[in-house]
Design goal:
This protein has 17 helices and 19 strands. It is an alpha+beta fold and 595 residues long. Among the domains are: 214 residues, FAD/NAD(P)-binding domain; 65 residues, no CATH class; 59 residues, GidA associated domain, C-terminal subdomain (DNA polymerase, domain 1, Orthogonal Bundle). A hairpin with a 6-residue loop joins strand 15 and strand 16. The protein starts with a strand and ends in a 6-residue tail after the last helix.
């Protein structure tokens, strides 16, 4: 086969232009890397294939963390928001979670403009079909057009496209999302390199013509007034916000679904892969929760310039004619017209235990993965992984240590540790309940936790360094001795931080001081395990005294530290004591210190 070699060499190639790919490309280029973003369709960069919303429980905190590290998602959300809510506002600050419904086209093209404006980023419309290696060395990618692109690192952000198959009733066809072809070449290429792949499923609800909805029969859900911006660098939202609407299913809905379960690919055996348990289809809700007579539905606008509405809570893969009957059984939707049918999609993913904490593949140095290819679901989870993969690919090329966030430091750290240590058996989604230190990981202190990293990397502008330091110092002073606003130093005209925000952060820290101190103490205890390195050649299967299950799981995951080993499900405290003893003995035999 004759190949054409692209005349330019790149430091980093990002495969995929979704939320993970966009953040990966911006991070790598921001650290000075010559970056190529390759996608099948340049008109779908950062497309919101499912719900055009950003944030939610745990997710909102992650978006704030992305922003503090210098990522783009929060800024993009603020410029395209059309309805904003603070979830859990009546509860404690640890679970306050922002969520914004966005104009999906405004969001999409704002991100495209941001990528096009970067001098270090080149965009190309093509499809990567093979990872290009020579021996054990990564060389780049080969595309559908038989073009070789050379690079030092490759970041795969393929979303739901790897061997994607779409299901609507008993109709199945190939697709990475509706009306877009799948990527069928990369899966075999990854398997040839020795990667183990799995199969997952997700889905999306139908869209309705807003003109055919009777909103008088629905409950209005007004946006927050004033709405809180996502980005630390946004003073206020400029868009005129819109309401969302709430309705619910009833007995008629359940009857229609039960009568048509034989036409559901979920219940007739066509779909065999695991879907997101926390976001079940309407079929699952009716079958598994028969004691619930109704289920809430949220009607959410898709944009300022469109009449389409997203039916949050009505995910399904039933045939289109059944979908219409289901919709018209709902109050306010009796005459509603479908403009886009709901569907389910199955796709390949790589088992995430095959990565290290920098999101680099263990068996192919220089190959990174981010987003749904790692078994996660959600724009926010994908964007966070893309950001970290982009940063760490650049740091690898520079010969520097990777940026690894701890569980007590960021929800991003919780997510990556969960993926690497525990793996997944269903699409992974972040929740506040996944974090044992969630009082430390609040939305209001994401900048205090992480912005120093963003400044050090250069992804946060240097102009914010001084005002941010003043802000941090002010919060610390207010925690000790509350002061009148007149005595608090000004942050400067360009600063996004305010006196009110400093007072709120300090008050929260003071109110929860005892609990935060306890969390910090527990986190410090576990930090000692983070520094105990497990020798790469340790044969877990040969260690006497460990439970058989523990030996098997340790061999599969290959943890690099005792901390990682301790978080593997099934590994007991007794196993950890024995493992620590073995590691210390190996360190002494080598004439070194294990800790």
């Amino acid at each position: 086969m004759t190949f054409f070699s692209h005349p330019g060499d790149f430091d980093v190639i990002v495969v995929g232009g979704g939320h993970a790919g966009a953040e990966a490309a911006l991070a790598a280029s921001g650290l000075g890397m010559k970056t190529l973003l390759m996608t099948q369709d340049l008109d779908t960069i950062a497309q919101m294939s499912c719900n055009p919303s950003i944030g939610g429980i745990g997710k909102g905190q992650i978006v704030r963390e992305i922003d503090a590290l210098g990522g783009q998602m929060a800024k993009n959300t603020d410029c395209s928001a059309l309805s904003v809510h603070m979830l859990n506002a009546s509860r404690g600050p640890a679970v306050h979670s922002p969520r914004a419904q966005c104009d999906k086209k405004l969001y999409q093209f704002a991100m495209k403009r941001r990528l096009e404006a970067e001098n270090n980023i080149s965009l190309i419309q093509d499809e990567a079909v093979r990872i290009w290696t020579e021996g054990s060395r990564l060389k780049g990618v080969v595309t559908l057009r038989n073009t070789r692109y050379r690079s030092n690192c490759v970041i795969l952000t393929t979303g739901t496209f790897l061997k994607g198959v779409i299901h609507i009733g008993l109709l199945s066809f190939k697709g990475g999302r509706y009306n877009h072809p799948p990527s069928d070449g990369l899966s075999p290429s990854l398997e040839e390199l020795g990667f183990k792949l799995g199969r997952l499923k997700t889905g999306t609800p139908m869209r309705l013509n807003g003109r055919t909805i009777d909103f008088s029969r629905c409950a209005e859900q007004k946006p927050d007034d004033p709405p809180a911006p996502f980005s630390h660098f946004t003073a206020s939202l400029e868009n005129k916000l819109l309401p969302c609407w709430i309705t619910h299913t009833g007995a008629g809905t359940a009857a229609i679904i039960r009568a048509n379960l034989d036409k559901s690919p979920l219940y007739c055996g066509r779909i065999k892969s695991a879907g997101p348990r926390y976001c079940p289809s309407i079929e699952d809700k009716i079958v598994k929760f028969p004691h619930h007579p109704t289920h809430h539905l949220f009607l959410e606008p898709e944009g300022f310039e469109t009449g389409e509405y997203y039916v949050n809570g009505l995910s399904t893969s039933l045939p289109e004619e059944v979908q219409t009957a289901v919709v018209r059984s709902v109050a306010g939707l009796e005459k509603a017209e479908l403009v886009r049918a709901a569907y389910a999609i199955e796709y390949d993913y790589c088992l995430p235990q095959q990565l290290d904490y920098s999101l680099q593949a263990k068996i192919v140095p220089g190959l990174f993965m981010a987003g749904q290819i790692n078994g996660t679901t959600g724009y926010e989870e994908a964007a966070a992984q893309g950001l970290m993969a982009g940063i760490n690919a650049a740091l690898k090329i520079k010969g520097l240590q990777p940026l690894i966030l701890r569980r007590d430091e960021a929800y991003i750290g919780v997510m990556i540790d969960d993926l690497i240590s525990k793996g997944i058996d269903e699409p992974y989604r972040i929740f506040t309940s996944r974090a044992e230190y969630r009082l430390l990981l609040r939305r209001d202190n994401a900048d205090l936790r992480l912005m120093d990293y963003g400044l050090k990397l250069g992804l946060v502008s240097e102009k914010f360094k001084r005002p941010f330091k003043i802000y941090k110092d002010t919060v610390e002073k207010l925690k000790l001795i509350p002061q009148p606003s007149s005595l608090i130093p000004r942050f400067g005209e360009m600063a996004p931080w305010t006196v009110e925000k400093a007072e709120l952060s300090a008050k929260t820290e003071t109110d929860y001081a005892a609990y935060i101190a306890r969390n910090n103490k527990e986190a410090e205890k576990l930090k000692k395990f983070e520094h105990v390195i497990i020798p790469p050649g340790l044969d877990f299967a040969a260690l006497k005294g460990l439970l058989l299950e523990s030996r098997q799981k340790l061999t599969k995951v290959r943890p690099t530290t005792l901390a990682q080993a301790s978080r593997i499900p099934g590994v007991t405290p007794a196993d950890m004591q024995l493992l620590w003893v073995h590691v210390e003995r190996m360190g002494k035999r080598r004439g070194g210190v294990a800790i």
